Amino acid sequence: MTTASHRRALGQHFLRDAGIARRIVEIAGLTPQDLCVEIGPGEGALTFLLAERAGRLLALEVDEKLVEGLCARLASLAHVEVRLADARRFDYSTLPALRPSPESRVVIVGNLPYSVSKPILERLVAARTAVSEMVLTLQKEVAERVAAGPGGKRYGALSVLTQLYCDARLALAIPPGAFRPPPKVDSAVLHLRVLAAPRVPVGDEGRFHRLVKAAFGQRRKTLANALAGGLGVSAVTARQWLAAAGIDPGRRAETLSLEEFSRLNSFGPLNPDGKMRGFE
Ligand code: SAM
């Protein structure tokens, strides 16, 4: 692999605007009690600022050369560790044990590589019980999809399945020129605060996830047809199910609130064994 393609594959667009770096770190609101985990520290544009504020900092970087460089520059800071690790596979459940004290927050900060930002975000949301807040720089379009409310084309499974567990807000827009080399797209900082409990009752979470993904799987279709196709139930059954939940079967998934998805999940065509058909 050439150096340039290696950098591209790892999404290495380094932040070169010190003012924006400071604003990102301010959004995280770190205190000396907090454990901060930085994903993809790169050349350290955020790392040194985070190290000044956090009680402990763990930086996860997949590029060996960058890890070596950062380790050398951060060697004098005993509360900072740079680890060679892939953020898609890191075991986030180990984080609470690394906190400076049992009351400490775990705050994830990262200017994420765009090609893998969605799997990393999904992994972090899945590991939410180990995390308090996340301040993630993403492709603007992805950040907007996560924070979108019902009624628009950006609202989808990523919005529902993140907002089920987190408050989500767009905290800062960043133009391509803030990075070296500049990416082809705009970026934005997404601020997620993990909720103490899911925003709405979900019952069986696996089933809720399958329901939401099926509803948005064919988003141009009516809900009845999207659910029938995605879950393998008949259109008649899907229509009866939606009617029982008080939801017009002719609506599209993008118009449903989290409360309506929750209600829909609590109704459904049951098999004789009590399990929902098409949900297994
Ligand atoms: N934080 C630095 C900054 O703002 O200048 C670098 C950001 S750069 C967009 C993304 C960084 O994530 C790069 O350093 C890249 O090597 C690293 N990276 C890419 N894939 C990764 C992965 N799967 N796990 C951890 N780090 C990764």
Topology:
Elements: H1 3-9, E1 14-15, H2 18-28, E2 35-39, H3 47-53, E3 56-61, H4 64-74, E4 80-84, E5 106-111, H5 117-126, E6 133-139, H6 140-147, H7 157-163, E7 166-174, E8 179-180, E9 187-194, H8 205-217, H9 223-231, H10 235-244, H11 258-266
Parallel strand pairs: 2-3, 2-5, 3-4, 5-6
Antiparallel strand pairs: 1-8, 6-9, 7-9
Helix pairs in contact: 8-9, 9-10
Bound molecules: S-adenosylmethionine (SAM).
S-adenosylmethionine is lined by residues 10-15, 39-43, 45-46, 60-63, 66, 86-88, 111, 113, 116.
Word description of this protein:
It is built from 11 helices and 9 strands. It has 280 residues and is an alpha/beta fold. It folds into 2 domains: 3-194, Rossmann fold (3-Layer(aba) Sandwich); 205-267, Helicase, Ruva Protein, domain 3, CATH 1.10.8. Helix 5 links the parallel strand 5 and strand 6 (133-139). Bound molecules: S-adenosylmethionine (SAM). S-adenosylmethionine binds next to strand 1 and strand 3. The site of S-adenosylmethionine has 24 residues, from strand 1 and strand 3.
Give me some keywords for this one.
280 residues, alpha/beta, Rossmann fold, Helicase, Ruva Protein, domain 3, 2 domains, seven-stranded mixed sheet, two-stranded antiparallel ribbon, 11 helices, 9 strands, elongated, binds S-adenosylmethionine
Short description:
The protein is α/β, with parallel strands linked by helices and 280 residues long.
